[in-house]
Amino acid sequence: MKKATIKIQGKQLTVAEGDVVFVNRIAGSKAGDVVDIKDVLMVGEGSEVKFGTPVVEGASVSAKVLENKRGEKVVIIKKKRRKGYQRKQGHRQELSVIKVESIKA
Fold this sequence. Notes:
- With 105 residues, this protein is mainly beta.
- It is 0% helix and 69% strand.
- The protein is built from no helices and 8 strands.
- The protein has strands at 3-8, 11-16, 20-24, 34-37, 40-45, 48-51, 60-80, 85-104.
- The strands form 2 sheets. It has a 4-stranded antiparallel β-sheet with strand order 2-1-5-6, with no helix packed on it. The chain has a 4-stranded antiparallel β-sheet with strand order 3-8-7-4, with no helix packed on it.
- Strand 7 (60-80) and strand 8 (85-104) form a beta hairpin.
- The radius of gyration is 19 Å and the shape is elongated.
- The model has no long low-confidence stretch (mean pLDDT 95).
């Protein structure tokens, strides 16, 4: 099974064909869109691995956007004791769920 290390939305992921991964929201994408990722840092398997400097020339990964959603809520609490200072803030990260369809080297 061919694997590839890609750079998408500022993060590096190692993926194989058929993998479903969560990444930061891909701007302007809708469910069903096909995204072509050109930032392939490594591709191959076993002894036939190609490493890029920094990217592998001519390599690409094709992925389909399954859905856009929001992640779990993270609660941030700040407090200073005996001063009456308390702050509470929440955050939900915007995510895209993508399925890797093909890896071309």
